[in-house]
Design a protein that fits this description.
Keywords: ATP-binding, Cytoplasm, Kinase, Magnesium, Metal-binding, Nucleotide-binding, Transferase. The chain is of the alpha/beta class and 408 residues long. Helix content is 37%, strand content 19%. The chain binds adenosine-5'-diphosphate.
Length: 408
């Protein structure tokens, strides 16, 4: 995303924050004009050897090396960088600060202004996402301390999937145990699936509630969803973001019994298995690489491990596409998004190869085109429109945050 060459901020902009355990992504964007004033990433927060901020605003890109003891220091650094660019956040008449919060549990189905009650509830459900929600809260507290007058809003990654049909949301496990531990399918990447599905319907020139679509969010994390008339009826991520598609470093679906074998025979602890499943699996576990560009280069060069990883990735992806076609019954569009989905023409072609009998046919020239515009890559004759829709979670978070504040 390129930040514009203009420092003067129109009232109503939103500061979007995505805080991870040692990183903080931010974007200052106008939710109406879509103008991006600033965009950046603070990394290696809390590392004694030092962190860094990659920052783009007012038409220039900078990267500074700086020690960032905690998230508050990172935010203070961002505020200072913006000030140097002529942007004073305290005077900018921001509509809101929009925080990405990964897990909303059963409590949150819509963006929420963060008051004491909402903050405590996010904290209460943190055990559902121990790697994600605690850093999100740290980000919320850090920004609120520096910008106390701007309303903070939480936009939940799970919210779009809040009303999945019960047969899709329920795991076949002892019902009492499931209730006690809040075990169900929650789904993630919801902001992206929602944004992309709306853009796809708009591109097709049809009301969102008339379009049935399969959205494939293929980034480092990856998820698929089946959306009937604007409402998700299934999604591949589950209780946690581990389930479903093969990802950069995560397993996706595996036999739950594998954990028993690793614990009993491999003498691995729960934390060992957690790290294995989350960090040393997926494409990286199979091939040593989780960057899809390298995987594709290695496949082209005939590398056996990368080829197997690629085949396993595609096998799972096609499995979900097939399942969601049957669940939806009628499919109007299949939509690719995120880093791999938007850029890797070969993945799109291979994922949908030989499906002419189902009304799916990719036009190779359209597929090869490189642009960041929404586009159709299927042939005109094909019954199902295959689209590439660049996702923009920051813009969607900004829009939802501004809307909830306007309703106050
Ligand atoms: P994240 O889940 O971290 O937000 P992204 O949506 O940015 O991830 O996607 C990251 C993935 O996209 C990486 O695997 C990267 O290799 C892949 N990717 C980015 N550009 C290309 C490209 N031109 N061709 C193939 N893969 C790409």
């Amino acid at each position: 995303m390129t930040a514009v060459e203009k420092a003067e901020i129109v009232p109503g902009a939103v500061l979007v924050i995505n805080a991870g355990s040692s990183s903080l992504k931010y974007q200052l964007v106008d939710p109406v004009t879509e103008q991006v004033y600033a965009d950046g990433l603070a990394e290696r927060i809390g590392e004694p050897s030092g962190g860094a901020v990659k920052h783009e605003a007012a038409g220039r890109k900078r990267e500074i090396e700086v020690i960032l003891p905690d998230h508050r220091a990172a935010i203070a650094q961002v505020v200072e960088l913006l000030r140097e660019d002529g942007i004073d956040l305290a005077d900018a008449a921001l509509a809101a600060v929009g925080h990405r919060v990964v897990h909303g549990g059963r409590s949150f189905h819509a963006p929420s202004v963060i008051d004491d009650r909402v903050r405590s509830e996010i904290e209460r459900i943190a055990p559902l996402a121990p790697l994600h929600n605690p850093p999100n809260l740290v980000g919320i507290d850090a920004v609120s301390a520096l910008l106390p007058d701007v309303p903070p809003v939480a936009v939940f990654d799970t919210a779009f999937f809040h009303n999945l049909p019960e047969e899709a949301a329920t795991y076949a496990i002892d019902a009492e145990t499931a209730r006690k531990y809040a075990i169900r399918r929650y789904g993630f990447h919801g902001t992206s699936h929602q944004y992309v599905s709306l853009r796809a319907a708009e591109f097709l020139g049809r009301p969102d509630d008339e379009v049935n679509q399969i959205v494939l969010h293929l980034g480092n994390g990856a998820s698929a969803s089946a959306i009937r008339g604007g409402r998700p009826i299934d999604t591949s991520m589950g209780m946690t973001p581990l389930e479903g598609l093969v990802m950069g470093t995560r397993t996706g679906d595996i036999d739950p019994g594998i954990a028993f074998q690793l614990a009993r025979v491999g003498e691995m602890t729960i934390d060992d298995i957690d790290r294995l499943y989350n960090k040393r699996s997926g494409l990286k576990g199979l091939s040593g690489d989780n960057d899809f560009r390298s995987i594709l280069e290695r496949v082209a060069a005939g590398d056996a491990a990368a080829t197997l990883a690629y085949k396993v990735y595609l096998h799972r992806l096609r499995h979900y596409i097939g399942a969601y076609m049957i669940e939806l019954g009628r499919v109007d569009a299949i939509v690719f998004t995120a880093g791999v989905g938007e850029n890797a023409a070969q993945v799109r072609a291979d994922a949908l190869t030989d499906l002419g009998a189902y009304g799916i046919e990719i036009d190779p020239e359209r597929n090869a085109e490189r642009t960041d515009q929404v586009r159709r890559i299927s042939t005109d004759a094909a019954a199902i429109a295959v689209l590439v829709v660049p996702t923009n979670e920051e813009l969607e978070i900004a829009r939802q945050s501004a809307a909830v504040v306007a309703d106050l």
